Amino acid sequence: MTFTQRHLLGIEPLHPTEITTILDLADDYVRLNRQPQKHGDALAGLTQINMFFENSTRTQASFELAGQRLGADVMNMAMQASSIKKGETLIDTALTLNAMHPDLLVVRHPHSGAVDLLAQKVNCAVLNAGDGKHEHPTQALLDALTIRRAKGRLHRLNIAICGDIAHSRVARSNIILLGKMENRVRLVGPPTLLPAGIGEFGVEVYDDMREGLKDVDVVMMLRLQRERMDGGFIPSEREYYHRYGLDAEKLSHAKPDAIVMHPGPMNRGVEIDGEIADDINRSVIQEQVEMGVAVRMAAMDLLARNLRAARETREVMA
């Protein structure tokens, strides 16, 4: 297996072969997770600390479950009750945790670059569970695994990413990953929700939903991230749904076998029609949740292998 990373901070540093390595191992963990006995020992004897400075349901739960299924000692830190609230800096928090000798640190933070900063201050492997508007690498990897299993491949597909692109770290990580794997990516959304310099992303841009979805293989909807908005980006949710919410009529412009995705949490009747979200013939939203556990198991397994190898090398040299 080809995977040389010490941390998983984003998709950008990953080579396509490393992406494939994660997805191939995740496929093995999908099979394990469907067995009555779901436990492995890849992380046995290791300590995993989950630090979520932002609320999370799917990501935090799946990282916790992934660590437990692989035999790690898992600790979830309640950051709302931590010393950060007393004025402690992020670096001091990192140094405090480092003194406890964790092996895997999973971090979600509202500020772009914060996870990278933490990674520079600790001796363990760090996984980025989402930092500001920067990246969310495991979400892109689980999306990639979902697409590959549904379509039988992860290259030369037409993929539309629709909605609030400007505030979405999920969109950014997916654009990078899908581009590395030779897919044709379209961004669809109102001009107010498209990031500046979008022409540099190597994507096609549409502000008309029907035109943007024409003949695509994958429709990836995004959540409206109102918590990151500081102005009037859309006239109203009703108007937004009328123009950019995914319903049966808009979906009819995609290929007949196009799959529908959403990273969650969904705002039904705003970004997506409830019937489309629940359509077992088109929607793979629940599969995305399942793939999330397997991908996070694979990522932590690979990082743990590199961590152990590095420690063995240091012991030999000492």
Could you explain the architecture of this structure?
- The protein is α/β, with parallel strands linked by helices.
- 40% of the residues lie in helices and 14% in strands.
- It is built from 11 helices and 9 strands.
- Strands 7-6-5-8-9 form a 5-stranded parallel β-sheet.
- Strand 1, helix 2 and strand 2 form a beta-alpha-beta unit.
- Helix 2 crosses helix 11 and helix 5 crosses helix 11.
- The longest helix is centred in the last third of the chain and has 33 residues.
- The chain is globular, with a radius of gyration of 20 Å.
Strands side by side in the biggest sheet: 7-6-5-8-9
**Rg over alpha carbons:** 20 Å
Mean pLDDT: 92
N-C termini distance: 28 Å
- Specify the structural class: alpha/beta
**What's the overall geometry?**
globular
- Major β-sheet, in short? 5 strands, parallel
Provide keyphrases for this structure:
alpha/beta; 318 residues; 40% helix; globular; four-stranded parallel beta sheet; five-stranded parallel beta sheet
